[in-house]
Amino acid sequence: MTQRHPQAVQQILALYANWMRAIRERDLEAIVANFADHMTYMPPGRDKASGKPAVREVWAGYLQRKNFVAYYEPTIHVSEKGDMAYDIGSYRITMENEQGPVEFTGKYVVIWELIDGQWKAVLDIDNSNG
Predict the structure, then answer these.
(1) Domain that holds residue 38
(2) I need a labelling partner for 48 at 20 to 30 A (CA). Which of 32, 60, 69, 126 fits?
(3) Is residue 16 left, alpha or beta, with left meaning phi > 0 and alpha meaning psi from -120 to 50?
(4) What is the share, in percent, of the chain residues with pLDDT greater than 70?
(5) In a domain? residue 1
(6) pTM
(7) Spatial distance between the Cα atoms of 76 and 81, rounded to a whole number of angstroms
């Protein structure tokens, strides 16, 4: 099967690469730059965060965790019109707590929208594999 809108797929994959780099570098503003103003994030075990300021606050908390690193494995699907995309992927998060290193794995869905010529995440929901 041929991927629809391969340039859009490559653009979104580049955003993910920058997002993962920004996490490693603790660059909150670079992370938040991926999000639309009307972004909603639904993290596991917590209330949803709606709007860029609320999502920024959640990510600021993540970056305070000792050695927090997230690895995403995206699978991008672009709409026929080429203005929306969704990603059904998996993730691995590593960090340290009082007992030492910990790792979580899970899955996620991110909805991307082409806004003023730039791809922005508008919805992100993830949950742990337990």
Answers:
(1) 6-125
(2) 69
(3) alpha
(4) 98
(5) no
(6) 0.91
(7) 15
